[in-house]
Amino acid sequence: MTGTRTTTAADGWQEDPPARRGFGLNGNGYGSLSRQFPSTPQGAQDARHAAVRQLGQWGFGPMEDVSCAVALVVAELAANAVRHGSLPGREFAVRVDYE
């Protein structure tokens, strides 16, 4: 998806237009949200929680297989970004797409 990004909910996720309908999806059934986090252990934890929270908005419960799998992948990649790629003042980005 391309287009101008607009800020959505207070959790800081950014959303590509058009506005999501239903479980945070556009009219075609696709969803794509992204967010930046500080390169800290807390930022990695926040990334995992935010990804699972977003899946919840798309209709997936926190204990469903897909949510657990996404939480594991985001946690591992975010921890690697913090541990091996962090520079003072830099952030890392997480993007979750749903088709």
How would you characterize this protein structure?
The chain is an alpha+beta fold. The protein has one domain: Histidine kinase-like ATPase, C-terminal domain (Heat Shock Protein 90, 2-Layer Sandwich). Helices cover 38% and strands 20% of the residues. It has two helices and four strands; from the N terminus they run βββααβ. A four-stranded antiparallel β-sheet has the order 1-2-3-4, covered by helices on one side. Helix 1 packs antiparallel against helix 2 (65-85). The longest helix is centred in the C-terminal third of the chain and has 21 residues, at 65-85.
Q: Name the strands of the widest sheet in spatial order.
A: 1-2-3-4
Low-pLDDT parts are 1-9, 15-23
Gyration radius over CA: 14 Å
What top-tier CATH class fits best? Answer: Alpha Beta
User: How far do the termini sit from each other?
Assistant: 12 Å
Number of helices: 2
Oligomer: single chain
User: What's the mean pLDDT score?
Assistant: 77
Which word captures the global form?
A: globular
Counted up, domains total 1
H/E order of the elements? EEEHHE
- By CATH, the superfamily comes out as Histidine kinase-like ATPase, C-terminal domain
CATH topology descriptor:
Heat Shock Protein 90
What is the strand content? 15-25%
